[in-house]
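Justification of resources, computational component.

The compute hours requested in this renewal are based largely on the per-chain cost of generating structure records like the one below. Each record pairs the submitted sequence with a full structure-token output. That output is archived, and it is also reused by downstream analysis tasks.
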Amino acid sequence: MIGPMTIRSTAGRVAAYAWLTFAVLNIADLVFGLTGEPTYSLTALTVGVLLLLGCGIAYTVGLRPVIRADDDGVEVRNPLRDIRIPWAAVRGIEGANAVKIRFTGPDGAELEARAWVHQTSPRAQAKAEARARKEQAKTQGFDLTGRTPTAYTAQRLNEILQRQRPKTRSGAPDKAAAAKAKAEEARESVRGAVTWSVPAVVSLVVPLAALVVLAIVGAVS
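The structure output for this chain reads:
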């Protein structure tokens, strides 16, 4: 049994909480008049809805994204979608400018999950690899090549994946072959799941719909 592994973006979470704090204080000021008289005009209402939309973006982009792995499989939670993949459905894990997991999808076809966490541009990835090579030189040959956050996360996931693979005994070739065939057959029947996150979608759609309504009201009045 392995302990759950959870990978999040610290910078993203700090920025999200900073915005949420800012939004809550400003909404409280509009409603309760913390720094002056309360304001209930159409303009104030529009500002409040914009703050709520910002909160939705902070939640979906800053707080939701995560890579979580346990004994059962790996979960990739992106801003709007949740991807849950049993280890038997995983076909490969790579870490370049993003953590990418190839897996058997719900319909049996191969799909690729690209994690939002640690996602970087190719240029930023090249800079990170250059820093890793410099660190390798400083540590007198200790292998740090590719030890960027993305590559390291992919490495850890691959280590867990290998531990979850069924073990066969080399001393009994026939039994080992049968066990391998049985494991491959079981893998073919295991599927990953891709679903939309209802809370994430609602947190964006509701403020956007409210802005449209307010725009119509403002145009009519």
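The first helix runs from residue 10 to 32. The CA atoms of residues 133 and 139 lie 10 Å apart.
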